[in-house]
């Protein structure tokens, strides 16, 4: 719900501001208050009447502090929000630079950044106006303090009520106090300015974690890899969409293809399996263990997943490959890369710092690589992880036909002995699965082997027959197709 850059800026600003606030509170402010009290005691000792102008000065000084504090916190929070928004806007445009160029929106993004900079400047100017007003009023009050205390001491000396030493001591104390009052005011202002930044940062940092391990949650133990979706419902809090009372059992080491039109609930099924959300109804079990009762880390460690859009970390190829299994050996890592048809192109990589091969950095989200190269590294990462449950979400969609054909045997080997869920729009990639489950409207409408589903002439048969190049046709074409239409090869 927020810009990544804005969240990053908040996270970076809040800790340093917290440190500043602690310093101002326990060092500057505490020391200054001690000095004021000490000065008052010394003036009382010298001549109690010298406290009169000091007391008269403290009243407007306290009012100025209160006035500044009430305004500094909100102004600082607004300035921090403006800076975070500026960072978020720039990072958003930068990370989507291809879209910006593709749609020729350079001027629009520059204008948006300029507007964000203007709001940041305006918020900064409001802060500076507060400091300026405070400084002017404080200078006036300090002048009155010096004149009041020193003049009062001199008058007492002329009447014989005070000695020259009292006049000298009072003058020295009040000059020092005048200098410190500005420092005190600045420290108080910076303290509440830091609180404003912290408050803005806490809007992101202190968000409650809604998905947590249950008390006493145990690590998941995968013995067979049996997955059960038991009367599963999830509508993202909207009351409709998602999954609706879905029943599905995936037997140990079974390969199941998941098919359906856009919005049918396929991705929701995977998100619930990975426990990115808790189910709104029903339960999800692996080897008889409810996912609500196991730790999230152990669950996700037992699942290897290759997504349609594989995003890599802005680190080296080696770090990305070892991300799911840091203890893997060099030989195991290279073997996985070779299986994914990635080793040869990895050896040719070179980054701007001169690093080559497995030590080359891949750029933000892997931007220095092609889509097919990113996908092959993602495949190698999952091969190396060697988890007992495998989820493929359009795993070969970014590969050209030649590369896809080359790694089909690798995929078959990778799936051997594992429980597999494979989501695909290109039905030819899942035709050889043990079962194909067709989801429509959040429910399973067909379930069986490829040939049986074609023979039924239902939704799967229509999807199969209306594909062009192996991809799903538009929904309206599918709906208009006759129920008994089969692909030419099926008809034969």
What's this, in brief?
The chain is α/β, with parallel strands linked by helices and 492 residues long. It has two domains: 4-205, ABC transporter transmembrane region fold, CATH 1.20.1560.10; 227-480, P-loop containing nucleotide triphosphate hydrolases (Rossmann fold). It has helices spanning 4-46, 51-95, 97-102, 106-158, 164-205, 266-273, 296-301, 317-321, 330-339, 343-347, 371-385, 401-415, 450-456, 459-465, 475-480, 488-491, and strands at 227-234, 243-250, 255-259, 281-286, 289-290, 303-306, 389-393, 419-423, 435-440, 443-448.
Index terms:
single chain, 492 residues, alpha/beta, ABC transporter transmembrane region fold, Rossmann fold, 2 domains, six-stranded mixed sheet, four-stranded antiparallel sheet, 16 helices, ATP hydrolysis activity, ABC1_TM_dom, ATP binding, membrane, ABC-type transporter activity
């Amino acid at each position: 719900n927020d810009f990544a850059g804005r969240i990053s800026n908040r996270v970076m600003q809040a800790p340093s501001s917290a440190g500043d606030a602690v310093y101002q509170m326990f060092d500057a402010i505490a020391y200054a208050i001690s000095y004021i009290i000490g000065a008052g005691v010394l003036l009382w000792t010298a001549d109690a009447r010298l406290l009169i102008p000091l007391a008269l000065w403290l009243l407007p000084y306290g009012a100025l502090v209160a006035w500044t504090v009430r305004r500094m916190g909100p102004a600082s929070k607004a300035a921090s929000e403006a800076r975070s928004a500026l960072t978020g806007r720039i990072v958003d445009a930068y990370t989507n630079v291809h879209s910006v160029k593709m749609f020729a929106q350079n001027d629009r993004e520059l204008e948006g950044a300029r507007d964000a900079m203007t709001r940041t400047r305006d918020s900064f100017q409001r802060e500076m106006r507060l400091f300026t007003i405070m400084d002017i009023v404080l200078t006036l009050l300090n002048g009155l303090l010096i004149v009041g205390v020193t003049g009062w001491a001199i008058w007492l000396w002329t009447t014989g009520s005070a000695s020259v030493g009292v006049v000298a001591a009072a003058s020295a104390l009040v000059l020092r106090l005048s200098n410190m009052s500005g420092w005190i005011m600045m420290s108080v202002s910076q303290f509440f300015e830091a609180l404003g930044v912290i408050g803005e940062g806490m809007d992101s940092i202190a968000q409650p974690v809604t998905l947590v391990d249950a008390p006493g949650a145990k690590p998941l133990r995968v013995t067979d890899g049996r997955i059960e979706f038991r009367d599963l419902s999830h509508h993202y809090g909207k009351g409709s969409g998602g999954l609706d009372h879905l029943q599905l059992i995936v037997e140990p080491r079974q390969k199941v293809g998941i098919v359906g039109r856009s919005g049918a609930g396929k991705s929701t099924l995977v998100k619930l399996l990975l426990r990115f959300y808790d189910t709104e109804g029903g339960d999800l079990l692996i080897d008889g263990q409810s996912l609500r009762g196991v730790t999230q880390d152990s669950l996700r460690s037992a699942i290897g997943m290759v997504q349609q859009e594989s995003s890599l970390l802005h680190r080296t190829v080696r770090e990305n490959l070892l991300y799911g299994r840091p203890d893997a050996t060099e030989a195991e890592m290279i073997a996985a890369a070779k299986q994914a048809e990635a080793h040869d192109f990895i050896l040719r990589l070179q980054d701007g710092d001169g690093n080559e091969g497995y030590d080359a950095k891949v750029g933000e989200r892997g931007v220095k690589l092609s889509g097919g190269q990113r996908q092959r590294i993602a495949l190698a990462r999952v091969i190396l992880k060697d988890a007992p449950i495998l989820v493929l979400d359009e795993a070969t969609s970014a590969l050209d036909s030649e590369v896809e054909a080359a790694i089909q045997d690798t995929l078959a080997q990778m799936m051997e002995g594992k429980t597999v869920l494979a989501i695909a729009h290109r039905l030819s990639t899942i035709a050889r699965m043990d079962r194909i489950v067709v989801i429509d409207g959040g429910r399973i409408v067909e379930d069986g082997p490829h040939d049986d589903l074609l023979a039924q002439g239902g939704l799967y048969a229509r999807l199969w027959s209306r594909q062009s190049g192996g991809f799903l046709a538009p929904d309206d074409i599918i709906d208009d197709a006759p129920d008994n239409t089969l692909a030419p090869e099926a008809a034969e």
